[in-house]
Specification:
This protein has about 550 residues and is an alpha+beta fold. It folds into three domains: about 35-130, no CATH class; about 140-195 and about 490-545, TATA-Binding Protein; about 225-465, no CATH class. It is built from ten helices and 25 strands. It has helices at about 15-25, 35-45, 50-70, 75-85, 90-95, 105-135, 160-170, 195-220, 470-485, 520-535; strands at about 150-155, 175-180, 185-195, 225-230, 235, 245, 260-270, 280-290, 300, 310, 315-330, 335-340, 345, 355-360, 365-375, 380, 385, 395-405, 425, 430-435, 440, 450-465, 490-500, 505-515, 540-545. The strands form five sheets. Strands 4, 6, 10, 11, 12, 21 and 22 form a seven-stranded antiparallel sheet that branches. A six-stranded antiparallel sheet has the order 2-3-23-24-1-25, covered by helices on one side. Strands 13, 14, 15, 18, 19 and 20 form a six-stranded antiparallel sheet that branches. A hairpin with a 7-residue loop joins strand 14 (about 355-360) and strand 15. It starts with 15 loop residues before the first helix and ends in a 14-residue tail after the last strand.
């Protein structure tokens, strides 16, 4: 037998041809634009729980480089040192913004997508929770014996009184109750408990949203700054006095609090013996500060993880090093340089440090420059100067001298840690070793340099983050919400009474179930609750104990 299909007319409703023709009608009447469908689909995908978890994982994954690699916003000196130690890798990491992770466009994109995902997930749930909180428990099922947990007993009370007694007990246990309308012949009560589970779930999402808002507030209204300070030096909290300044999007230099600070003394102690020889033991930066001009000054000892709090901001100690003090005299006998010069540690275990000294001359081409290596505790290892301990127990400095034009008047900014020798002549073929108090008279009567002594410098991180405390509070609320959603369970208890066959009293059935797969001890709670309801009935005797809980039972369509 052959099937014969009649051809569909182009005007036949529902035909493919008709649909195509309708889609070609001007204005597309009755049809949503294809872009709107894609937008709805994209929004559903973005606000799904799976997408939120993926974005949260990506945010955590993207934060790892910010914790491992030095960041420009917290320690610019360490970033420069990373360039020196890894000249091939560092430029590629910089192209990926891995030295400034938390201000990079890709991190901001993940952050904003996660924020939008949480907003789209949490806001509808808020309205849903409000509706759920106002919804009474469902009506009691007809056959409570089919529930996962059930028991029945004979009561001397009429059905209405027996149900009223059970409702009184359930209400005392803080169950939400629902009773049938008055005047009917159906006697039951529904009770539900555990609404805090949904509240905890919602609290967790709202708190997570609060954490993101707090971080955003810190990025908009906070700022970070770095300052290298040598012992005896002072500075004021202004953009011109700071070495690095990373303001938030809505922060300008005029928003900085006007505090001042002086580094009085920095001390560092190290382990003197054993396998941990040379490991740091304690750091202490003693500073004097004033919160504003004319304010009473105070002193404070800044230690690791013990910052100074002043004017709603915090000052952290993030690094330290040595600053050899040099005095440079030109060929005509005038002192052209007399200051402590910060040297950057090339080794954090021994604090062998590199640095340069730039002494401008009176005329063009008469500048003096020095490349130096500072050694805190010096020894000679086959003619090579090395340091065996990070403390300045036997300091020495090795210098190479240059004479010529430093290029300081070219109008091009220069790094204080690098020396441009393209227009200079080396004055000595080999480095010259100096100890504190010694003077090196330069060849050809070009002047002299004196190694006066050693001071220390500290690197300070100045931060203002208005979202830090709110983020902490929201984090604690998120934990509380998570605990509520884990430990609180939704459960329902139903009581139904029917007249006894003897015509006197009633038969009361109690049933219960949980709203989740894990009962979490509901069996014991139901048994105790059913026994308490039965014990409150005069002349009541158990007719049937709790039924066994079959694994394939589910809640009836109540």
């Amino acid at each position: 037998m052959t099937d014969v299909h009649a051809p569909q007319s182009e005007s036949q409703p529902g035909s493919v041809a008709a649909e195509g023709a309708a889609g070609r009608l001007p204005g597309g009447a009755g049809r949503p634009a294809p872009s709107a469908g894609w937008l709805r689909w994209g929004w559903r995908q973005l606000t799904s729980m799976r997408t939120a978890l993926v974005l949260l994982f990506l945010l955590a994954l993207g934060s790892i480089p910010g914790s491992i690699l030095p960041q420009e916003g917290t320690d610019a000196g360490a970033v420069q040192q990373y360039y020196v130690s890894h000249p091939g890798l560092a430029p590629w990491l910089n192209r990926l913004d891995l030295f400034n992770v938390f201000a990079s466009p890709w991190f901001a994109a993940i952050y904003l997508l996660l924020f939008a995902s949480l907003v789209g997930c949490v806001v509808p749930r808020c309205f849903k929770l409000v509706g759920t909180a106002r919804t009474p428990p469902p009506r009691a099922p007809r056959n409570l014996a089919r529930l996962p947990h059930s028991s029945s007993y004979a009561s001397a009370l009429p059905p209405e009184a027996a149900v009223a007694r059970a409702a009184e007990i359930l209400g005392g246990q803080r169950f939400r109750l629902r009773r049938p309308d008055a005047g009917g012949t159906d006697y039951w009560v529904s009770a539900e408990k555990g609404y805090l589970r949904e509240v905890g779930n919602l609290l967790f999402h709202l708190a997570l949203l609060g954490v993101l808002l707090s971080i955003a507030a810190g990025g908009l209204f906070g700022y970070k700054a770095d300052k290298l300070l040598v012992e005896g030096q002072s500075f004021a909290d202004t953009t011109s006095a700071l070495d690095e300044f990373h303001p938030g999007r809505l922060v300008s230099g005029s928003d900085l609090p006007p505090f001042t600070m002086t580094l009085n003394k920095f001390t560092a102690t190290y382990i003197q013996s054993g396998q941990s020889l040379g490991q740091p033991e304690n750091f202490n930066a003693n500073v004097s500060y004033a919160s504003s001009p004319g304010a009473k000054p105070g002193t404070y000892n800044i230690r690791i993880n013990d910052p100074l709090s002043v004017d709603s901001l915090k000052v952290y100690l993030i690094g330290h090093g040595y600053a050899p003090e040099f005095k440079v005299t030109s060929a005509d006998g005038s002192v052209t340089y007399n200051a402590a010069t910060p040297f950057i540690p090339a080794s954090t275990s021994t604090f062998l440090s590199d640095g340069v000294v730039k002494a401008p001359g009176a005329a063009t081409g008469t500048d003096l420059g020095f490349m130096g290596v500072f050694v805190p505790t010096a020894i000679s290892n086959n003619g090579t100067l090395e340091s065996i301990f990070p403390a300045a127990d036997d300091p020495a400095v090795s210098l190479i001298a240059y004479y010529g034009n430093l290029g300081l008047n070219d109008g091009v900014p220069q790094s204080v840690y690098q020396l441009d020798t393209t227009r200079m002549t080396k004055l000595s073929a080999a480095p010259h070793l100096l100890t504190p108090g010694q003077t090196w008279t330069l060849p050809n009567g070009k002047g002299s340099v004196t190694f006066v002594g050693v001071k220390q410098w500290v690197s300070l991180a100045i931060t203002y983050d208005p979202g830090q405390v709110p983020a902490l509070v929201c984090g604690m609320l998120a934990l509380a919400g998570l605990l509520l959603s884990f430990f609180v369970r939704r459960r329902r208890v139903f009581v139904r009474a029917v007249p006894a066959a003897s015509g006197t009293g009633s038969v009361v059935t109690v049933g219960g179930l949980t709203r989740s797969d894990a009962s979490g001890g509901f069996e014991e709670e139901f048994t105790e609750l059913a026994a308490e309801i039965a014990a409150a009935e005069p002349n009541a005797g158990p007719n049937a104990g709790p039924t066994a809980e079959p694994s394939n039972k589910s809640e009836p369509g109540a």
